[in-house]
Amino acid sequence: MSETAMSNPYAHPFGTTVDRDALSQRLLAAGGWEAKSRLLVQLARDLPPLPDADKVDANRVSGCESTVWLVTRWEGGKLQVAADSDSRVIKGLLTLLLTAYHNQDAATIQQFALEAWLTELGLVRFLSASRGNGVRAIARRIVSESQQPHG
Q1: Which segments constitute the Fe-S metabolism associated domain (predicted)?
Q2: Is the confidence at residue 16, as pLDDT, over 90?
Q3: pLDDT class of 138 with cuts at 50, 70, 90
C-alpha cells in the first residue's frame, strides 16, 4: 500500500479506479458465495485502514454487529467516503459500498438502489441477517451524510 493511502484513508481505488460496473462483473463471474467472499476479502486488502484518530465512537456505525467506522467529507461537490472494520468479511463488503457511494454527488447517492444491486449480484441470499443489517446500516449512514448541508 502506498504511503499516500496510509496517510489518506480517502485515497483508495473504490468508487474511482475500481468502479461499480467493473466490480459487478467480477462478482457475477465469481459464482458461489465462497468465490464471492474470497474476492471481497482480496479487495479489502486495498482498503487503507483508518487512522486511529478516526476510530472513535462518533464515527462508529450503529446497527453493525462488527465494529465499523465511517468518515466522510465533501470535495468538489462529491462525497468522499472512508471506512474500516475489525472484520475481514465486513471490510470486504465495505469495498462494495465504496464503489457505489465514494466520490459520488448527493443525488447519485440518494437514488442508488442498493437492495436491487445486492440482489443482482447474488449476494442477498448469502448474507446472514446480521451482516445484511450491518450493510444496510452503513448504507443508511452514507445516505444520511449525503443529505447534510455542504459547501
Answers
A1: 27-143
A2: no
A3: very high
Range of the domain at 120: 3-146
pLDDT category at 151 given cuts 50, 70, 90 is: low
Asked if 64 is an active-site residue, the reply is yes
Q: How far is CA 87 from CA 23, 47, 68, 117, 138, in A?
A: 20, 13, 8, 22, 14
∠87-66-33 over CA atoms, to 5°?
55
Would 110 be classed as within a structural domain?
Answer: yes
Nearest to 109 by CA among 119, 99, 95: 99
Number of domains in the chain: 1
Residue 151 lies inside a defined structural domain of this protein: no
Q: What CATH number is given to the structural domain containing 91?
A: 3.90.1010.10
Annotated active-site residue in 27, 64, 96, 100: 64
